[in-house]
Write a structure and sequence with these properties.
This protein is an alpha/beta fold. Helix content is about 45%, strand content about 10%. The protein is built from six helices and five strands. α1 packs antiparallel against α2 and α4 runs parallel beside α5.
Length: about 230
């Protein structure tokens, strides 16, 4: 993402005002010089024993000098305006766009299907293929199925819980009974907006189920943390 051009309005305005005053003064000076040259040429041309051709050549030289001075002033003004605009040499890195996965505080206003859809879109965003939302009656513990970027079969159960409502060991046991035997998981993950009880974490460790809590979910959603399949194997 290209960083926006930084401008300094107050500084730029003072410089433009000062330069405009100098330009105006220069313009009046050149006009006065041209008028004086025309008058001098006219007086020289009508004077006895004058050289009209020489007077005309002198006037042309004066006009050429005035034109060159005005052009030089315009070039200096353009250069100063360009100097007021600065572009950073190394633009900041672009973070992946977020897809709006709910946080724990949002779960009172969102249904489980919307949460499952948000998790599926996070999987798609970060390179998963064959992503399916299969949650609902008869899902046998799986809410999202996908293939990870490194080719593993991913089975996800989604728990959109409010703060203080932790995922318990019974939730993990129900998922653990089907994620491998029924859904052929190579990576089984429980994602929640909340946290896990200690017994749930103990059971998950025994069954090689990845527990992905609210803090990890927020970092994944914002592009500042890893996806579940990017974590070291348990």
């Amino acid at each position: 993402m290209t960083m926006p051009v930084r401008r300094h309005p107050a500084i730029a305005q003072r410089r433009r005002q000062a330069f405009s005053l100098r330009t105006t003064s220069l313009g009046f000076g050149l006009v006065a010089l041209v008028v004086w040259g025309v008058a001098l040429t006219f007086r020289t041309a009508i004077a006895p024993h004058s050289d009209p051709l020489g007077a005309v050549l002198a006037l042309l030289a004066l006009l050429l000098l005035s034109t060159a001075t005005i052009r030089s002033a315009r070039l200096r003004r353009a250069a100063r305006r360009a100097a007021l605009v600065t572009v950073p040499e190394h633009p900041a890195p672009v973070l992946p766009p977020t897809v709006g996965a709910p946080q724990a505080a949002d779960c009172a206003d969102i249904d489980p299907f919307a949460f499952e859809d948000a998790i599926s879109r996070l999987c798609e965003r970060d390179g998963c293929s064959d992503v399916q939302v299969v949650g609902g009656a008869g899902d046998l513990g799986a809410d999202v199925l996908a293939t990870t970027p490194d080719g593993r079969r991913l089975v996800v159960q989604c728990k959109c819980y409010a703060p203080g409502h932790k995922v318990g060991s019974q939730d993990l046991q129900r998922f653990g009974g089907t994620c491998y035997a029924v859904h052929d998981a190579e990576l089984a993950v429980v994602v929640t907006t909340s946290e896990f009880t200690d017994p749930a974490l103990d059971y998950a460790e025994q069954c090689a189920i990845l527990c992905f809590g609210g803090t990890s979910l927020a970092a994944w959603n914002n592009g500042t943390g890893p996806a579940p399949w990017e974590l070291p194997a348990q």
